[in-house]
Amino acid sequence: MRFKAREGDFVEALDGLIFDVKGLVHPPDRIVAYLRYLEDPSGDRRRDGKNYIKVYSLSEREKILRERYPQYLYYDRVFGEYMQGVPTRYVSKLYQPTEKVREILEKPRLDIVESQAIKFVKTICDSSDVQLRKIGLSGSILVNLHRKDSDIDVIVYGREDSLSVYEALKRLMDEGCEP
Known about the structure:
Layout: E1 10-13, E2 18-21, E3 30-39, E4 45-47, E5 50-54, H1 58-68, E6 73-76, E7 81-87, E8 91-95, H2 97-106, H3 112-128, E9 135-138, E10 153-156, H4 159-174
Antiparallel strand pairs: 1-2, 1-8, 2-3, 3-5, 3-7, 4-5, 6-7, 9-10
Helix pairs in contact: 3-4
């Protein structure tokens, strides 16, 4: 199966590992993505009755994969080095930031982070005239592993729209608004 994955998307593998996608171009048989979350009883993030940990450092991500999940490491001839990637046959779900915005807008009840995120997205749209479909939410909120103290990772697709949002945010900050 072929996936149209791009930077900002997340991939969940069949074994429950969650990876953040890197780049726009991928080998035919896998998605270049780096381990971000894995199930762990001691984890401080919870989803569907399971605890997860967030893996921060690249060296720790690679160590976990090398020791426990070597199927996600491969040698890339183009880059001439070992990289992390999810074989397409192991992909359970592709999470896309623009879909997350739509999902949150349709939810009847939001938690505090979702509420703040959608308020911020609407402020961006209203201040920049960028269409809602060009804005997405990535990071922990995308895969429902956010906490009350999680940051909000907004993605704007397209160069012109990104510049428009940049100018709008600059203007809002100059006016004393807090994001």
